[in-house]
């Protein structure tokens, strides 16, 4: 069984700092629902709101 997420560091060239990246593993059927949801809603949401909604769907 895969862990549901992975944290890793990456180097940001713009700011010269290391930042944390969170990768979330999502099952195939959930991914399909997410893609449909994003296609419907991407134009009317702020990035923060979209991220909150997406995380609530997959976690």
Q: What does this entry look like structurally?
A:
Strands 1-2 form a two-stranded antiparallel sheet. It has 59 residues and is α+β, with helices and mostly antiparallel strands. The chain has a domain of 34 residues. It starts with a strand and ends with a helix.
Strand order of the largest sheet: 1-2
Largest sheet: 2 strands, antiparallel
User: What percent of residues adopt helix (DSSP H or I)?
Assistant: 40-55%
Instruction: Count the E strands.
Output: 2
Number of helices: 2
Strand content: 25-35%
Question: What descriptors fit this protein?
Answer:
59 residues; alpha+beta; two-stranded antiparallel sheet; 2 strands; 44% helix; flat
């Amino acid at each position: 069984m895969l862990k549901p997420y992975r944290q890793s560091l990456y180097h940001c060239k713009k700011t010269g700092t290391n930042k944390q990246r969170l990768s979330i593993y999502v099952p195939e059927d959930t991914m399909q629902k997410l893609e449909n949801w994003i296609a419907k809603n991407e134009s009317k949401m702020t990035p923060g709101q979209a991220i909150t909604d997406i995380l609530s769907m997959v976690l």
